[in-house]
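Anyone have tokens for Methenyltetrahydrofolate synthase domain-containing protein? Sequence:
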Amino acid sequence: LRAPAGGTKWDVRQKVWDHLEASGLADFPRPVHRRIPNFKGSHQTCCSIKELDVFNRAREIKVDPDKPLEGVRLAVLQARKTLLVPTPRLRTGLFNKIVPPPGATKEILRICATSQGIKEYSVPVGLDGKARVDLVVVGSVAVSEKGWRIGKGEGYADMEYAMMVSMGAVQEDTPVVTIVHDCQVLDIAEELLDDHDLTVDYILTPTRTIKTDCKRPKPQGILWHKVSYEMLEKIPILKSLRYREKQAGKDVTLQDEHSDLANANTPAASNEKAMAENTRPQTAIGSVQTGQHHVESDSFSPRLEESGMITTVYVGNIPHSVRVSELKCALREFQATPLRPNWQGAQHKAFLDYKDKATAESAVSSLKGLSLGGKTLRVELAKNQRSKG
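Reply: yep, here.
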């Protein structure tokens, strides 16, 4: 295939998608348009990753959730390596770690590698999950032998990589592999590339393994000036990363932020719509207010409580300005809704009851690094699990 002369990235995508469908190479799910396309023979192509030294040396491997990469996910699990898969559209965090049940059969591992298995056998990895990724495997719509990659146009693979750089999960020399059909390898004009575009070091196709020796630097972190408020709203973990980088003194001005935020020391700078921060004076975290505290309970199952299964999560460091509704909204956003919250805002804390220890631990992992009202919350299993019933 030849890339259309003088065309845009979208022209290149359209040409690849059209060709895969017209030539009978496209495989489920179809049509392949607007997707990372699956192709006939993708599973066998994925198996060839086992021949790469970078795969054999790696212990922790991040693989995108796309259908054509299912065979790579299976190979990682069969080799007993740690498999990290980004959460779809980064809605609830960055990674899920796929944890097959003990003594999993080949069939169970096969299921773990599918999109269904990713849902059923995964544990969220929060920002503080200390992920150390040795190999990154991404899907592509088109790629050049020089290692220049075009994705499906939503920017998630680029964003995931930039976020991994920000949290220290990848290094400059962490290799990136992509798996495509031969017809997806074509010349891509360098002027089509942006500075946030991820490049690849290895391309696996049904007929060959290409080492690109790409010299173009990979993204060095999140380019905040290219991030919109809309993206910040869609990807909750971005807010937490942005808060961290802001604390570290980095410029985190967004694409659509205006000059009123130029001076990071003014109250306006922290008045960021996307983080819904309230700039009223905050009570010092150390001062515990006495008197009765307000407890807000949601309806929950008393039977569950009496069963003694409930596990409580402690949330501390809650700014005085934050309301219970904001906490509830964040819990929903991070898919960590408890059976009930026990809100003690005057004392800067809350206790969240979950149906069992696994659900509580998952919530702790999801909420690590979450900031509300300009402060990072302290989230951990409650030290004293209160008596149930």
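The chain has three domains: 9-211, 224-259, 311-381.
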